[in-house]
């Protein structure tokens, strides 16, 4: 028997003995002590939390999607003086659930279409629970070999799955905003350095950097640009579906061509689902010496499906990419992904070193790829989701979401008085009634009725109800129930 096998078996023997000792009511080798940390301190509250969690998850298909009460009513239930004395952990769990449940949105419902939020695969959710239990600070690599290696593996799988350069750096951030920020910081420092300036001296000592984007640039990019010191993006035009105007981009890059520039492209417009013409836009930007970043919060995952390769043609030629795993991939909140082709540039912009932080020269640490130094191992649920799905499963997930969006659009077109305003190319559907007031009323009616929850918005100077399909559970039955709810709403409001 090898040393590795002997150690593996010894570990499992210990775990079995530990479990048997807990079942007997005491930790191995120790007398029973009600105050001992190994004697049920975690077991009872975690078992209780598990029962509450399963009950919640099993209710999602049928419960109203909307919360029963609003935030102010929740505060009335919670906002009280902190008691002088504490209470048992199980009592805290019960109190938490009783207080919170009326204010919970069923975001995991297959009929939740707001804010582009996915559900959670069982393997990803279970892995997320283990991440909390393991409590590994996955910032430095050396003290956290298990979670760091799992994240590195997940990163390699993502690059392969999305057909992105294998040498790229991958960081697991909180969401698309922080992932965009990480990429823009790497871009900012790289283009400044190319002009002979030292980004470590600050922006005051560097040439001004232009941030360019299409007219439909997402708010997360705008916020990330502000936080990176780049300001609000200069917009260069877009077509009626939100795709960047490539000719307008070329003109903008030609102006002040001596200044460093970052161009942000979009994989999946938040209203139409449209994808920029990456092949043309990347060529124009690179000819001007600009860095190209792709904001692909939900749309980057189209690259995992053979069916959508035309939408992502040229995407892999960019310099950085940002996406959310808690959208299309359906892992629990929170998990954004920042990817930069030049890993050294990513590390130079985001990395940190200190005498007390263990590191190995030349080997990047997890905190070299994201804005946070201390963080949970949010890439582990990504590993679990990808491992449970495999390459074919991810492609089927992406295709299924797009099929559901097409099914919704087809159903809505059959309802008198309603129109689908966008070209449904991926997972977004924008619905409108004849007047803005009627559309706004329909959105309010749907959210109050509770069968579905979809966001109201403004797009192309029209009020719309936006359906963003992101949940793996949005199947033909969920589509049917959604179309039925919209039809009932239109009838109740006299829309025709």
Could you walk me through the main structural features you see in this protein, from its secondary elements to its overall organization?
Belongs to the group II decarboxylase family. Residues 1-41 are annotated as: Disordered. It is a single chain. With 496 residues, this protein is of the alpha/beta class. It has 4 domains: 1-38; 42-109; 125-386, Aspartate Aminotransferase, domain 2; 393-492, Alpha-Beta Complex (Aspartate Aminotransferase, domain 1). Helix content is 42%, strand content 10%. It contains 14 helices and 11 strands. Strands 1-7-6-5-4-2-3 form a 7-stranded mixed β-sheet, sandwiched between helices. A 4-stranded antiparallel β-sheet has the order 8-9-11-10. Strand 2 (210-213), helix 8 and strand 3 form a beta-alpha-beta unit. The longest helix is centred in the last third of the chain and has 35 residues, at 379-413. The protein is globular. Residues 1-35 have low confidence and may be disordered.
Quick overview:
Helix content is 42%, strand content 10%. By secondary structure, it is of the alpha/beta class.
Helix content: 40-55%
Beta strand count: 11
Q: What characterizes the major β-sheet?
A: 7 strands, mixed
Major β-sheet strand ordering = 1-7-6-5-4-2-3
Determine Rg (CA atoms, Å).
25 Å
Instruction: Give the class from helix and strand content and strand pairing.
Output: alpha/beta
| CATH T-level topology of the largest domain | Aspartate Aminotransferase, domain 2
Shape: globular
Q: CATH H-level name of the largest domain... which superfamily?
A: Type I PLP-dependent aspartate aminotransferase-like (Major domain)
CATH A-level architecture of the largest domain: 3-Layer(aba) Sandwich
Our count of domains comes out at 4
Oligomer: single chain
* CATH class (first level) name of the largest domain: Alpha Beta
Number of helices: 14
Termini distance?
77 Å
Please trace the helix and strand order, writing H or E for each element. HHHHHHEHEHEHEHEEEHHEEHEEH
Give the low-confidence spans. 1-35
Family: Belongs to the group II decarboxylase family.
Pfam families: Pyridoxal_deC
Keywords: Decarboxylase, Lyase, Pyridoxal phosphate
Protein name: Pyridoxal phosphate-dependent decarboxylase family protein
């Amino acid at each position: 028997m090898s040393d590795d096998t002997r150690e593996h078996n010894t570990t499992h023997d210990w775990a079995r003995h530990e479990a048997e000792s807990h079942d007997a009511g005491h930790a191995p080798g120790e007398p029973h002590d009600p105050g001992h940390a190994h004697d049920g301190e975690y077991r009872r509250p975690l078992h209780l939390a598990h029962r509450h969690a399963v009950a919640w998850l099993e209710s999602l298909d049928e419960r109203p999607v909307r919360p029963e009460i609003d935030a102010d009513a929740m505060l009335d239930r919670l906002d009280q003086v902190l008691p002088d004395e504490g209470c048992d952990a199980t009592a805290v769990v019960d109190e938490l659930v009783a207080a919170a449940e009326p204010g919970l949105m069923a975001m995991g419902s297959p009929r939740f279409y707001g804010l582009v939020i996915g559900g959670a695969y069982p393997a990803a959710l279970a892995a997320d629970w283990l991440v909390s239990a393991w409590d590994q600070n996955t910032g430095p690599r050396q003290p956290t070999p298990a979670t760091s290696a799992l994240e590195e593996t997940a990163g390699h799988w993502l690059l392969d799955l999305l057909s992105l350069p294998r040498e790229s750096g991958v960081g697991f951030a909180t969401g698309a905003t922080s992932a965009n920020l990480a990429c823009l910081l790497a871009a900012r420092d790289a283009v400044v350095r190319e002009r002979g300036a030292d980004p470590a001296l600050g922006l005051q000592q560097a040439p001004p950097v232009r941030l360019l984007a299409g007219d439909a640039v997402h708010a997360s990019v705008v916020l990330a640009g502000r936080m990176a010191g780049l300001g609000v993006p200069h917009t260069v035009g877009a077509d009626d579906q939100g795709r960047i105007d490539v000719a307008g981009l070329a003109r903008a890059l030609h102006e002040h061509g001596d200044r460093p520039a970052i161009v942000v492209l979009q994989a999946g417009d938040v209203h139409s689902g449209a994808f920029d013409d990456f092949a043309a836009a990347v060529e124009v930007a690179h000819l001007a010496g600009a860095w190209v970043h792709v904001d692909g919060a939900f749309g980057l995952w189209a690259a995992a499906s053979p069916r959508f390769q035309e939408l992502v043609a040229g995407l892999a030629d960019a310099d950085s990419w940002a996406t959310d795993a808690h959208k299309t991939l359906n892992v629990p909140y929170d998990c954004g992904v920042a990817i930069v082709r030049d890993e050294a540039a990513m590390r130079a912009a985001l990395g940190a070193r200190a005498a007390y932080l263990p590191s190995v020269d030349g080997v990047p640490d997890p905190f070299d790829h994201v804005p946070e130094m201390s963080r949970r191992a949010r890439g582990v649920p990504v590993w679990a989701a990808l491992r449970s799905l495999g390459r074919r499963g991810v492609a089927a997930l992406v295709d299924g979401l797009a099929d559901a969006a097409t099914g919704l659009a087809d159903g809505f077109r059959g309802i008198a008085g309603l129109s689908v305003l966008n070209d449904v190319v991926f997972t977004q559907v924008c619905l409108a009634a004849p007047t803005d007031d009627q559309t706004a009323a329909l959105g309010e009616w749907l959210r109050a009725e509770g069968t579905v929850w979809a966001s109201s918005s403004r797009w192309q100077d029209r009020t719309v109800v936006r359906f963003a399909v992101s949940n793996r559970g949005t199947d033909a039955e969920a589509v049917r129930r959604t179309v039925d709810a919209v039809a009932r709403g239109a009838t109740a409001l006299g829309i025709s």
